[in-house]
Structure formats: structure tokens, C-alpha cells
Amino acid sequence: MKHSKVYKLLTAVSFCALLSGCLETPWDSLEFNRYREKNGEQKNLGQVRFVYDSLNSLSLNGLMNTNILPLKVYGTALLLADAQDTQQKIDGKNLPKTMQKFGFIRAQGIANWRDDLAVRPELTGEKTFGLVRQNIEVNIVGRRMGLEVANITCAACHGGVTYDAQGMPTRNVWLGAPNSSLNFDGFLGGIYKGLKIAANNPDLFLAKLKEAYPNIDALEYKTISKDLLPIIKKELAKMEAKSGKVLPFPNGGAGITNGVGAFKRDAKLKKDAFVYDPHEAGFVSIPDISYRGFRSSLTYDGAYGVKNTERFRNIERNEAMNPSWGSKLAELASFFTFSAMGNTMGNAEKAVPRVKEIFSVLQYNKPPAYPGVIDSEAALRGSQVFAKSCSQCHGVYSDGLNPQLLSFPNKFMKSEAIGTDPLRWQNVDQAIKDYSDKTAIGKYVDAGHSMGGYVAPILSGLWYTAPYLHNGSVPTLWQLMNPELRPVKFELGGHALDMQLVGIKGELNEDGKYVYPQDYQPWSLPTEYDTTQPGRSNKGHEKPFAGLSQDQKKDLLEYLKLL
Q1: What whole-number distance in Å separates Cα of residue 395 and Cα of residue 209?
Q2: ∠ CA 468-473-477 to the nearest 5 degrees?
Q3: Please, are residues 5 and 266 in contact by the beta-carbon 8 Å criterion?
Q4: H-helix or E-strand containing 297?
Q5: C-alpha dist (Å) from residue 69 to 5, 57, 305
Q6: How far apart are CA 97 and CA 397, in angstroms?
Q7: 8 A C-beta contact, residue 334 and residue 351
Q8: Cβ-based neighbour number of residue 2 at 10 Å
Q9: Which of 221, 319, 361, 435 maximizes the CB count within 10 A of its CB?
Q10: 143-152 and 131-140: which strand pairing?
């Protein structure tokens, strides 16, 4: 979740050079501290850290440079943007409902919480799942400043809604599942709209701030009114003069992220953070992260590997479940807290022990079982189709109706061979590798560049991870298997699942756009996915299905529900 350089100056701290080492000193989140106070020391906090640990990202450096939110400022901006007009009363307690429109979940439960590891969090559905806070206070050259700040945790992106037997979304989440409705572009657009009100009419904005947060203390109000708002006005003027965009790159829409664009921006590998480039489109659909121990590299393009380890190699189950391999993957995964959570590279390296604790759980994480009815005979026939046509790239599973992943080849495919959109791997350039090698966490990471293709993904949990392909460009598995049915445009976000076609439930309207059924009310605001735009092509992965009959495809579809 990256918010452009506007964040660098959306704080009261303009004396960063005077702070020296204090910049990277992190705060634990308020929620994580409360958990420890209430439950004491637990044997394993992996799942708790996944939900509540900011992994060192709540620091002054994060506040000034990346995506740490001044919560009351941005909350007021979002609520104002969502209001009918500036006369409408706003209330900070409604912020989670407003954020839900952009795919943030108000969870009521966690379906796969391991009670043997730690006490279950208390979720009421009245807060934003995966968002944590802290109140900070600093003294700079004798001046006190205070703010309530917030950031996302792993669970914001990798805690997805579960579905019932009819494919309807529930309010329970599954840790490790993708949040395929999270829309950072829409979220930032709402903030931007509200901040423009702050820039044009600061007195009105401050009045609405007090209306939304009537208990705001005097120090925070002074910090916002005297320091933040004047800087907001200056920064928005710079943005308007260039592109009028919050980010110099697109994030891609609901359930799509652009970590490469975020990395380049935070590493200052782009010359101008205010110039928008639509071809900086390194899109990936947020993945399911079950069975990560079977991966020999991370990300769809395999651009990041474990130092001094073969990047693309077959991994058997005994190695995938070995804690020592999970520990190495955790070191690599810590690297991504830079682009995903706004960490400094130094704090990312310091977070490695915490990420190892998370991986001690994730390494064995399973996807949810398919909740609908499965045709067993068709699924068994489909297993033979899979073994012949799919397993060479997507892994070997045990026989029967409870297939377990036994080995995964981590097979790398050149882009021209599989035919999928190349912009993701093309945007991973030499500058990323050069920068990564020099960082504190670079000792763990072998950052690649221009790998030229993608790693065939693990298919476990495939039934609930729509849309498909690395860039999320195909709504259903049936459309993937039948390329002529792939829609040019479709709705994405807050969707129900089609339990027959496996994927987003929808229908073609008179314009040929794949839209939600008229009687379905999405739980978040849908975005339009246009496959004609840069980085969004729905071409590719057609050859594996070319020789299959329609009956074989139906059998294969039934088998894939079991994975």
C-alpha cells in the first residue's frame, strides 16, 4: 500500500537530518501490545504477528517516507470524500465501513486460527482487519509533536473472505488467502479527494476533523493544524502540476498490487515521484500463500530467490516441511516488508526473527476445503487429466479425493512460451538488483532482473483465488480453459463465486462486459478490469487446454476443486 511522496511531507517532521538513528526506531502496534498484555507470553505468536505485528514499519522514517498513515487526517479525508457533500455529518467510528468499500475487511472471525498456538483474537466486525495503530509523540529541537498513525499488516492482503456452499462471501477470513477485493488505487483516490478539501479549505477540514474525532487531544490537533495541513497544500500543488495522481504508477485495481512500482519509488529509482507512468505496470494478483515451503523463489516471476540457492528447482514434501528451509524463506520474505509495508531495509532485516515466527505457521498453512458439492467420479477422471497435462508444471499430488502436494517443480517458463503479459517481469530491472544487493537485508536475497517469464504457480486453493493468471485477468477457470470465452472487460471486487465455472460469478451484459448478477450486492465497490490496458492482457496459457475435449475440461475443473 504505497501513497507516493505526498507521505514524505504529510507529517510535522521537517528536521529528519537532526533525528539521525531515531528515524528507524520502531513502535509495536497498539493492538499487538494489548494482545501481549492480555494474554501474556505465548509459545508461538506466528498467527498473532500475521494479524497484528507491523514488523518494525511503524517508525518515523516510515511516517515520513512511505505508507504510514496519519490516521485521523486520512480518516477525515476518506469520510469527507465518501460524504454526499461537506454539510453531511461525519463520524470516525464509520471509517471501517468506508474502508470496506475499497476491499478492507471487517472480519467477525478467523476460520483457520490454530488454538494450540495462541489465544484467538476478539473480532467484532467493527474494525478494519489487518490495520494496526499506535500513538506516537516526539520532541524535535524542543518542540513536542504527536499523531495517531496506522499501517497494514500481512493479514490486510493475505487474509481473504471465505465462501459458503453457494459461493456467497462470509464475514470470516482465512489467513493465507488472498484479499482479492483490496483496491489501493480507489483507497488512495478517496484520500486524495478529501485532502484536496483540506488544501482548499483548511478551516472546514479542521472543523470536520473535530466532528469525526471529537476526543482528539490538543497536541495532535496542533500538530495537524499547524504542521500537516500547510505541507499537504504544497504537496498537492506539486502533484496537480505534474499528473494529478497520488502514485507515479498504477496499482491495478481490486485484488491487484504493484510491488515493483512501490519498490522503485521507495528506493528512489524513479527520477520524479509525481510523474505517472501507465507502463510501470508490474501487476500481480494477490496470491494464496498456502504451502509456501514448496517454493524455491518468491513472486510470480521468481525474481527473488534465497541467497546461494538454486532459484528454480524441484522441492519434495520433506524439504518443503523442513523448518530450516522455512527459516530461509522467512529471511527472503522479510525483504518484501520494504515495498509492502513501508519498512526501511534496516528494519526489514531486524524483523527477520518475527517473520520466521510467522513462517513457522505459514509453512504448514493449508487452503480451505471446497464448500460445495463435488462430483467424485468426474474428479477422479480429472486427476488423470491433471497428471498428464498439468503436473509437469504445477506439481505432483497424491492419488484419491484428498490430494496432497508431494513435490513442486518450480518450473520457470519464458514469456514467449506461455504467452502471458510480459510487463511484470519487464519492470523488474537491473537497478532493483543493484539496490537490493547493497541493503542490510541483501545478504539473504538474490534479487533477479529481467528473468523473462514466470514460475508456474502452486494450484492449492485454486477454487477461491479468482481471478486467474499472474495479473488476475481471467474471471473464471472455465474461461481460462476456453480462451475464446475470456471477457475483454469484467467487474472485480466484493464478488461472489460461481461454483460451477469456478471463479467470479457474473454474466455478459449487452456490451459484452462480464458483470455481477443483477440480484447480487457486492460487499465492496467493484472496479473494472480492462484487458486492453498495459499489463492487463488476458492472453496466454492456451496450449495446455488446446488438446482437451470439453468433457476432459469439465473433469479437470472438478478435480481442481479438490486442491
Answers
A1: 53
A2: 35
A3: no
A4: strand 297-298
A5: 13, 11, 31
A6: 41
A7: yes
A8: 26
A9: 361
A10: antiparallel
Question: Phi, psi (5° rounding) for residue 68?
Answer: -75, 130
For residue range 162-191, list pLDDT tens digits in order: 999 999 999 999 999 999 999 999 999 999
- Give me the torsion for CA of 398, 400, 403, 409, rounded to 10°: 40
Q: How far apart are CA 420 and CA 480, in angstroms?
A: 12
The rounded percent of the chain whose pLDDT value lies above 90 is 75
User: Count of residues for the chain?
Assistant: 563
- CA-to-CA dists, residue 421 to 282, 411, 416, 418, 530, angstroms: 10, 18, 9, 9, 13
Q: What totals of helices (H) and strands (E) does the chain contain, helices first?
A: 25, 22
Q: What is the CA radius of gyration of the chain?
A: 23
What span, in angstroms and rounded, lies between the C-alpha atoms of 361 and 320? Answer: 13
The whole-angstrom separation of Cα 4 and Cα 69 is 12
The x, y and z cell numbers of residue 460, run together, are 492449492
Whole-angstrom CA distances from 470 to 102, 454, 561 are: 21, 8, 19
* DSSP 8-state code for residue 377: H
Determine the residue type at 294: F
With CA atoms as reference, report the closest residue to 202 among 73, 13, 9.
73
Residues 6+ apart with CB under 8 A from 464: 160, 162, 163, 177, 288, 367, 368, 497
Supply 6's cell numbers.
505526498
Q: Tell me: the pLDDT tens digits for 549-560?
A: 999 999 999 999
Strand partners, 150: 69, 133
